[in-house]
TrEMBL record, chain A:
It catalyses: ATP + H2O + polyamine-[polyamine-binding protein]Side 1 = ADP + phosphate + polyamineSide 2 + [polyamine-binding protein]Side 1. This is Spermidine/putrescine import ATP-binding protein PotA. Belongs to the ABC transporter superfamily. Spermidine/putrescine importer (TC 3.A.1.11.1) family. The complex is composed of two ATP-binding proteins (PotA), two transmembrane proteins (PotB and PotC) and a solute-binding protein (PotD). Its EC number is 7.6.2.11. Pfam families: ABC_tran, TOBE_2. Keywords: ATP-binding, Cell membrane, Membrane, Nucleotide-binding, Translocase, Transport. Part of the ABC transporter complex PotABCD involved in spermidine/putrescine import. Responsible for energy coupling to the transport system. InterPro entries: AAA+_ATPase, ABC_SmlMolc_Importer, ABC_transporter-like_ATP-bd, ABC_transporter-like_CS, Mo/tungstate-bd_C_term_dom, NA-bd_OB-fold, P-loop_NTPase, PotA-like. One of its GO terms (molecular function) is ATP binding.
Amino acid sequence: MSTAIDIRSVVKRYGTATALHGVSLSIADNEFFTLLGPSGCGKTTLLRCIAGFEDVTEGEIRLFGQNIAGLDPNHRPVNTVFQQYALFPHMSVLENVAFGLKMKGVSLSDRTARAGRMLEMVHLSAFADRLPAQLSGGQQQRVALARALAPEPKVLLLDEPLSALDLKLRQAMRVELKTLQEQTGITFIFVTHDQEEALTMSDRIAVMSQGRVQQIGTARDIYEAPVNRFVADFIGETNLLEVTVDRIEGGIARVTLPGGHTITCPTAATTPGKHHISIRPERLSISAAGDLTATVERVVYLGTDLQLLARLTTGEEFHIRLQNSARAQVPAPGSTVALHLEEGAARLLAD
Amino acid sequence: MAGGMTPAPQGNGTGYRAIVGPLLIPTWVMIGIFLVLPVLLMAVYSFLTKEFRGGVVWDFTLAAYDQFFLNRGLFGDEPPVIEWTYITIFWRSIWQAALATLICLIVGFPTAWFIATRPARTRAVWLFLVTVPYWVNLLIRTVSLKFLIRENGPLNESLMALGLITDPLPLVNTNLAVQLGLFYSYLPFMVLPVYAAVERYNFALSEAAADLYASRWVTLREIVLPVVKPGIIAGCILVFVPSLGAFLAPDLLGGAKTFMIGSLIDEQFRGSQGNWPFGAAAAMILMTLVLIVLTVYARAQTKGDAR
């Protein structure tokens, strides 16, 4: 598979502040790639560097082998779906979608036909003659998508495009976006702070924090094998405990848990000593003899799940999730339970 | 003005209407006293007969309009031909006002853009600086301008001292001087509404245009200008209309060749030389012209919105 975007040691500084600290990553052609991180982590800055709205201070951005770091945005074969859509308010929906084609010199009849097909694809044919202000938020979002896809860019950049929509619409659009990406075969680079969005749509995800890429991998990789505390904590829910590592061998660590029990688990850390371990709350079961002992303080009913807010006998806060099945015995608040760590529940982190 | 669709007031109709009538009385009184009444007076005067020492005789006649458009010879007994004197003055005024508007736009738009793209806290300072000249009376400013550009004034003397010219430039009493005066007088009227429009402009639109392969120039033409058009039109009207009727700048800075409508009307109401009905008629014709321009604009605007 060929490489669509190759980002090499990109540094972006604003005066004395550094937004990107030497980011390197490569994105394959036809991939749905997500930049995920909290606000201020540099994900939008990186996207804007790819689009050309920001110059990079150092480093290279290669698009199918060509360094585009010095090109103006209008000379880059990438298109963007903006967070607030940025539709041209004085143009009809059709004119908006046809704008990129017009700039590329496509004839009026050809671009009208192509823009029409794009609107069909996003189910907005009936609205071609409306002005953007006459559409709902979800419809404007789809116009922005059609407008960015119409010139058939090599790479489509999406800057938190779903954040302004309500939950139902957002969930529907996730499926629609993924389908569109598969239909068109265009590489999507999607920026979001919403991990659920990232996990449901992406082929691969880059988790970013403080201007650095923390981890790159599939949804399963970053959820099941987080490398550090930031990733483990940011993706999903987890319990982080400080532990003593006795021995590391062949990617497996021997760890003494609070309370004295010893287990083995996969590890990202390479040296023995004090480290953090991540224990996913849904990979625990209540059993007679467990690896950890905790006192239940509160039971939260979540519909499909029950969340137990507990405290380990050694004092740390600990969360447990149980499926809300009819058989499940729900421990009463105040009771003490023994917890068994299932396969893959624990992972030792690098930092 | 342009573009806004005011939603019909909601709520229980009868109660609302009962209140709104009385509440609007002050507005109607204001409009009546300061707008309708003066215009009516002007209209009536334009149909009266002039008296020699200024003032009017209450004999209704079309003489003023006749004098404006037709020439019946020295003694008024020849077959009428079109009188070009006043039409030429009007045409020259329109032309001068249009040119002044264009110059104000060319200078005012980048100025407004500059101010609107400064950090929010310094914008107020720039706007204040734009309005500073308005703290001084227009007459004084225009006279000062005349002193600045006269043959042995500071402009010519410094240019000669720098060796750029050998003889002073004859600027006073030229069209150029009038343009300078109009430009100086009305520039803020362009800057302020354009600033208001640019300040609301969403710069993500420019990024979107660049992203879709538009060059800077095309972005300006296809996106920026259409979006801030209401501000530009407002600025153009605010400069064009007073420029058309201006008399201070043409009087003080222009010569006989740059006689404009404002001066013509002004003259009709001065001392015993004046002709009130003729001045009123000229004012009515000027107002009609302006109203036609505004109506055409309003029509075009509604069509654009109704799309």
